[in-house]
Amino acid sequence: MIPKEIEQEIQRRIDAAEQEHNVKVLYAVESGSRAWGFASPNSDYDVRFIYAHPKDWYVAVDLEEKRDVIEYPIVDEIDISGWDVRKALRLFKKSNPSFVEWLHSSIVYRDDEIFAESARNMLDSSYSINKGIYHYRSMAKTNYRGYLRKPMVPLKKYFYVLRPLLSILWMEKYPTPAPIEFDTLRQMLETGSELDLAITDLIERKKQAMEKEIAPAVPVI
Fold first, then answer.
1. What's the CA angle centered on 156, arms 151 and 161, to 5 degrees?
2. pTM here?
């Protein structure tokens, strides 16, 4: 799914981040459209990772003032950034949707086989379905109001409304954190329905279109 040369460069940058910041990357994944299953040919590679400092870094009076993210400017198609493990766990406690999605990404670059698995094992007891629904509802509402009511619509914005709405349907039905793969979420729709067929057509167009391509609105959707 990820070209070999791109994965090698991602691994090199993860190694460089570890060296530059004296950290250990515990878990690194692909997020965004490539993990969701509807990337365009020129979509970025959205690499997100969780890292830990040596233990003495955390035993400090000024711990709360220390920077807990690693970010790099976007200079090409690879967008890479990470969270300190302490930040990640605080957000996990609040059912942060981004972190939960990272745990379910099928494109994994690094895995210490401890951190992510332990977090997944705690999901059933710690994840708030209500908070997840609120998050995805806000995402769908914002993108609908900002883009889908216009005569010309960026193709990817349909998925920024469809994916969260289908995630809500999933959580209401099961209730568990929603999967991130769009094809799985489509189980919430009636197969072969007018809407389902329109989405199939849209996915094919999205996979062939450039990232910022716009097209006439699709009334059915």
1. 80
2. 0.91
